[in-house]
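Fold this sequence, please.
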Amino acid sequence: MERILLIAIVGALAAACGGASHSAEKSPVADVALAPDSPLPAEPTVLAPLPDRHATLTFDVGSLAPLPFVHGTIGGVSTWMLVDSGASTQFVPSWMADRAKVQTRPTTASVSDHVRHDMNVALADRSLIAIDAWGGLTPGELLVVDEKARGLGAEFGVGIMLSPQALDDERAVILELDRRSIRTGSEADAVRALAARKIAVDSDDIEFCHGVFSVAATIDGHAVRLTVDTGASSSDLFSLSDAGRALAPRSARRSEGEAGSGPVALRVYKGARIQVGGLSIRKDIDIFTGAPEIDCPVDGVLGIDVLRSCVLVFGSGKGQLRIQCNE
């Protein structure tokens, strides 16, 4: 942008000097009014439209849960990337950063995982990331989270958590989970994508806090607020939320779940009725040990088990999300 402005200023000054070389007697009336301190207005700069980007989603990576993945590289090293709207920014586990020889720098920032456990982080450049068919990400901060090579994610080479709302392409990001597609587009493209699904979620029910979105819902009649989390294989509740406390007595013990900081205990509530806008679906709900935050209180997450039939449109401006779904 700075270079464009300088070119426009130089052009205006050249026009003014050219006009001053003529005497008033030889100049048309229109030119007499042009003085050196009143340069010709610069021609407006016309920018080429941004190219649309597109990548194909796959829900089949090894024996991992059916979550939305894209393929790409970091520092030229091949990796799978989880499209994770529950992440407020792009991040890479330290084992993948080591593998790709990513240079990092320290930071005082702190991050927490799904169950609010703090994790150590460093910073790198997110322009090291490129998505197949999409291209490279814009320069900016990439979080490197202290996580050693362990678990199924490392086993199957899932080395990037990709936040769709933080792709920073200055266009709408259209995440069509039901059509296995993520792309950028104009507002008209976004409207068409939303209109292709029948069931709307009221925008007034959607909130933006700490870089992620949450939506108002009910679970078996209990009012809840859930993080919109395409990186979660199943919807869940915190055990110390009001709804979690109410449903826990009718839940059953389940094997340990997994968060970024490691294994966590959970229970499962069978056959819950989840209502989000006009979408009503019956699913099992996991109940994690934990409590809602004070400043951005949510009761749990709305996972891919519900969102799989939906399109999520993240606006070009920060904090904008629209959701439409099919049954």
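The first strand starts at residue 54 and ends at 56. The radius of gyration is 25 Å.
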